[in-house]
């Protein structure tokens, strides 16, 4: 055995080397994850919902929601009733018309994007797909799988799509249908593309179109706010949402919703007595149960409270970082705090996400004020550079997926000082601490 924990675990888990101490290997995995949990503040998984009762009751067998979620074949080892309840709740929260919606529980946001964009491209096989440079990496991956041509649209410094560039790119391709991917919660800054502006641009420059929203992180919080809606006026045809982010399920999962009028019907599979309408065929019934549990035990109002508390903590994190002269900001709606990349010593200790000069921490439900205080203290201790003046954060409106109330009204509703709670939207690179 060596001194490296990773190598030691690999040797202990090697299935060619019997006997194997199964208990020791599993305990090592659990202990390693528990030790890292207090320092894991850079990736979007809520940690405040207890799923132990569901896992204890249902984690001992296979629950296979094979086929279409709207069918209910014989047998008991599926949870499609719970899946349908989840889909209905999410669709209603998004104000999606009851007579034009279909969806299912997926393995995560990537499968949701694949299901929606595959549907859109089958409907518009001559389409050009437009997506932002700040879109999730799953978007170009999905487009490679389905073979759809694409144009990457510029993103602004704060992560939001550049709508002028979108209009310009579409104007030179007027003869082709358009599939546009908006993002509600970009990976690094949690920016939200304005689907109203996108809809107007598409309606002007394309005769046939499909607007999809990748809302893996921010979909549920914005829907609970009433800021993200899939009503008929929205022009949105599909949406993908992650289940293991805001709901913090202990297994990766997600939800995809697609307008029923945009779909083709699936093929009937005789031996399973189901319609093959999903990407994976066999699907995790336990994941649907976990989502149902989170919704049933909390309801809309307690989930709204979780959103509010997470935003309060994110605002607090910005204040604490700027207090130690470390550049940081956030979008008004966001759990994500964007900051100048910390020194290597801090990055070695804390699990944060970094892209060059920019890093972020995400104040998901369950992250504590104590964790933020410890992180800020480590930055302050490691920062040997002369302190730079930090400008007073200015209020900025939400780049909405529809209707956005005034920033001061939002701040008052959340009990936050509108003048200090929210950081600027990074008009210049974060590496410049003297930005205006």
Describe the fold and architecture.
This protein is of the alpha/beta class and 436 residues long. Helix content is 37%, strand content 14%. The chain has 13 helices and 13 strands. The strands form three sheets. It has a seven-stranded mixed sheet with strand order 1-7-6-5-4-2-3, with helices on both faces. Helix 8 links the parallel strand 4 and strand 5. Helix 4 packs parallel to helix 10, helix 7 runs parallel beside helix 8 and helix 10 packs across helix 12. It is globular, with a radius of gyration of 23 Å. The protein starts with a helix and ends in a 22-residue tail after the last helix.
Strand content: 5-15%
Indicate the percent of residues in helices.
25-40%
Q: Compute the number of helices.
A: 13
Instruction: Work out the oligomeric state of the chains in this entry.
Output: single chain
Report, as a whole number of angstroms, the end-to-end distance.
55 Å
Computed Rg: 23 Å
Overall pLDDT score: 88
Biggest sheet character: 7 strands, mixed
The unreliable regions are: 386-400, 403-436
DSSP summary, beta strand count: 13
Q: What coarse outline follows from CA principal-axis ratios?
A: globular
Order of helices and strands: HHHHEHEHEHEHEHEEEEHEEHEEHH
Instruction: Kindly name the structural category.
Output: alpha/beta
Strand order of the largest sheet: 1-7-6-5-4-2-3
List the helices and strands and how they pair.
Blueprint: H1 5-13, H2 22-36, H3 52-58, H4 80-93, E1 102-106, H5 109-123, E2 128-132, H6 138-146, E3 150-153, H7 163-171, E4 178-183, H8 195-205, E5 209-214, H9 219-225, E6 236-242, E7 254-258, E8 267-269, E9 274-276, H10 285-323, E10 328-329, E11 336-340, H11 344-349, E12 353-355, E13 358-362, H12 369-382, H13 407-414
Helix pairs in contact: 4-10, 5-6, 7-8, 10-12
């Amino acid at each position: 055995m060596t001194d490296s924990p990773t190598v030691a675990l690999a040797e202990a888990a090697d299935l060619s080397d019997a006997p194997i101490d199964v208990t020791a290997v599993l305990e090592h995995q659990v202990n390693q994850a528990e030790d890292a949990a207090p320092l894991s503040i850079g990736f979007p998984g809520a940690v405040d919902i207890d799923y132990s009762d569901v896992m204890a009751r249902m984690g001992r067998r296979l629950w296979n929601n094979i086929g279409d979620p709207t069918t209910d074949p014989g047998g008991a080892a599926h949870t499609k009733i719970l899946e349908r309840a989840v889909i209905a709740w999410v669709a209603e929260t998004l104000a999606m018309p009851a007579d034009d919606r279909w969806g299912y529980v997926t393995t995560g946001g990537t499968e949701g994007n694949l299901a929606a964009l595959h549907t859109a491209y089958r409907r518009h096989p001559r389409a050009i797909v437009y997506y932002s440079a700040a879109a999730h990496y799953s978007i170009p991956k999905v487009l490679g799988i389905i073979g759809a041509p694409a144009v990457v649209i510029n993103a602004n410094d704060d992560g939001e799509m550049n709508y002028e560039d979108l209009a310009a790119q579409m104007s030179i391709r007027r003869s082709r249908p358009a599939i546009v991917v908006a993002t509600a919660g970009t990976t690094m800054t949690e920016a939200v593309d304005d689907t109203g502006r996108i809809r107007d641009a598409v309606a002007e420059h394309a005769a046939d179109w499909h607007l999809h929203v990748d809302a893996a992180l921010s979909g549920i919080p914005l829907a609970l706010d009433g800021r993200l809606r899939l009503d008929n006026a929205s022009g949105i045809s599909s949406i993908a949402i992650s289940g293991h982010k805001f709901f913090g399920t202990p297994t990766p999962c997600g939800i995809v919703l697609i307008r029923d009028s945009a779909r083709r019907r699936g093929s009937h599979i005789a031996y399973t007595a189901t319609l093959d309408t999903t990407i994976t065929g066999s699907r995790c019934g336990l994941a649907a149960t976990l989502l149902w549990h989170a919704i049933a035990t909390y309801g809309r109002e307690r989930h709204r409270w979780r959103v509010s508390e997470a935003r309060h903590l994110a605002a607090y994190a910005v204040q604490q970082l700027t207090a130690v002269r470390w550049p940081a900001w956030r979008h008004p709606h966001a759990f994500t705090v964007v900051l100048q990349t910390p020194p290597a010593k801090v990055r070695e200790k804390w699990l944060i996400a970094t892209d060059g000069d920019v890093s972020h921490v995400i104040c998901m439900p369950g992250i504590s004020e104590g964790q933020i205080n410890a992180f800020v203290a480590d930055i302050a201790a490691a920062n040997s550079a002369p302190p730079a003046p930090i400008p007073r954060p200015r209020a900025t409106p939400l780049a909405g997926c529809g209707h956005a109330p005034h920033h001061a009204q939002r701040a008052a509703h959340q009990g936050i000082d509108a003048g200090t709670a929210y950081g600027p939207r990074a008009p210049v690179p974060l590496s410049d601490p003297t930005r205006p």
